Amino acid sequence: MALKYLLLGQLSPQSPAGWKSRLKKATAKFKQLGITFEVMYYVQGEFDSMAIVEAPSAEAMVAASVWYAQQGYGKFRTHPVISADAMAKALAKV
């Protein structure tokens, strides 16, 4: 079962200079890991970007996170998310 995640990203100081290349490489790596982007925005404030992605497993998400940091692109926080329908089903079991 695919899992959805909210990613909150912070760029490294070097990232803005090569953002087009970084985005292309990161998108390719995520695709290789089976991760697809539903939406991505750049934001102002504590974080520089936010995205909703779908990943085949938690392991794939961890691999993407570690790879991203190893490239020196920055870092992101990963938060699993569920839909409102899934939340209603969960609460019905309580």
CATH class: Alpha Beta
Lateral arrangement of strands in the main beta sheet: 2-3-1-4
What is the alpha-carbon Rg in Å? 14 Å
**Number of helical stretches of at least 4 residues:** 3
Globular, elongated, flat, extended or rod-shaped: what is the shape?
globular
As for the CATH topology, it is Alpha-Beta Plaits
Order of helices and strands: EHEEHEH
| Average of the residue pLDDT scores | 91
Number of domains as seen in the coordinates = 1
State the low-pLDDT regions, or none.
none
CATH architecture: 2-Layer Sandwich
Helical residue percent band: 25-40%
Short structural summary:
With 94 residues, this protein is of the alpha+beta class.
Characterise this structure.
There is one protein chain. With 94 residues, the chain is an alpha+beta fold. It has a single domain (3-92), classed as Alpha-Beta Plaits (2-Layer Sandwich), CATH 3.30.70. The chain is built from three helices and four strands. It has helices spanning 19-32, 58-70, 84-92, and strands spanning 3-11, 36-42, 49-55, 74-81. The chain has a four-stranded antiparallel sheet with strand order 2-3-1-4, with helices on one face. Strand 2 and strand 3 form a beta hairpin. The radius of gyration is 14 Å and the shape is globular. The chain starts with a strand and ends with a helix.
